[in-house]
Amino acid sequence: MNDFDYLGKNEVYLDSACQSLRPRPVIKALNEYYEKHNSCGERVKYEWGEITDKKVEATRKKILKYLKLKDREYFVSFTLNTTYGLNLVLSQLDVKKLGIKKVVTSDIEHNSPFLSTMAFAETHKIKREVIPRAVSGEMPEDYNYKNAVVVVNSVCNFDGRRLENIKALTKLVHKQKGILIIDAAQGLAHDKDLLEKTDADVICFSAHKMYAPSLGGIIMKRKLLPFVKTTFVGGGMVDDVLENKYFLSAESKEHAYTKFEAGLQAWGEIIALGSAIDWLEKRTKADHERLNKLSQKLFDALKSHEKIHVINEVARPTISFYVDKKEIGFDSHTLGAALADQGIMARTGYFCVHYYLDHVKHYPPLVRFSLGYHTREEDVNKVIKALKNL
Questions:
Q1: What's the longest Cα–Cα distance across the chain?
Q2: β-strand 148-153 against 216-221: which pairing, if any?
Q3: Mean pLDDT score of the chain, rounded to an integer?
Q4: Are residues 289 and 240 in the same domain?
Q5: Which 3 state secondary structure label does DSSP give 267?
Q6: What is the CATH number of the domain that holds 57?
Q7: Whole-angstrom Cα distance, residue 192 to residue 307?
Q8: Is 151:181 a contact under the CB 8 Å cutoff?
Q9: Per the confidence metrics, is the pTM higher than 0.70?
Q10: 282-300 pLDDT per residue, tens
């Protein structure tokens, strides 16, 4: 794909689950901000600032449109990343006002929700429950979610399993007077269909996993605002300040996003995220099919090798596996280094899912291949050949 023409012929990038490569239009949008209207948003009256404000506001609208959500029901705030967003939301929820009695997460979660739910439970002295997810990705529908904050991912970061029953889960949690927070870090680039027209209460995401610069976002239901006790405060959040009192801008509907935006924001990155969404919206059915075809080809090759132990149940753009040191004389970390010597960039280890991969499944360190729209067929062929040789 020409939008990734900077990727060398012998460079194979298979770490999109960490951060995706950025297409040319996104890089151009970021550079244009610095070169043509480098300015503070929401604070100035000169032309550069007005251009910045207009483009930042456009990005907020594009995110909601991307997920087919309504502005009257949701707002978008920008943060550093998914981890930051989850912590920011959980640390400020008014548990008593919401009637929350426990927090629920699943066993296959990234450390972002896994650790933040630990801190949440400890802070509020409430019960924390870790429940198993199905190998296909669903959350149980016969579970007691009464008065719970439920925090789970829409797509798993080590094998790509999807929360296929997200709509049923949302209805169930709401029926039992709980709230649902979704870790969508892995979900917005290739699996946004899961979250389209969602009724989830909060969605936290990372732009750098969806072909945009390093940035995070919070998508929240407006009706949840009265249950957020603002404790992380600063410039850009207030309409006025007295000696011992301040008045939050988030009290007005049009500035609800300021609830989580203390201080100066990453204006250029936000604008470039808007460009990334435009780019993603232009991906055709053929683009999706091509990515799925390459994922299947790599998955089949890995599964067919007797000394490669694949974690995935099915082919997904994110595929994890391990090798047994007793069988081949080296582990996954060594394999990752050997692949790197041949220009193949992949992740090794436990991918911030230590609890499940290490302590539940007792896997040795893994290798993760995560493909993206930049992936070429020759990349997959090179990986298959390299693994056979190694």
A1: 70
A2: unpaired
A3: 97
A4: no
A5: helix
A6: 3.40.640.10
A7: 34
A8: yes
A9: yes
A10: 999 999 999 999 999 999 9
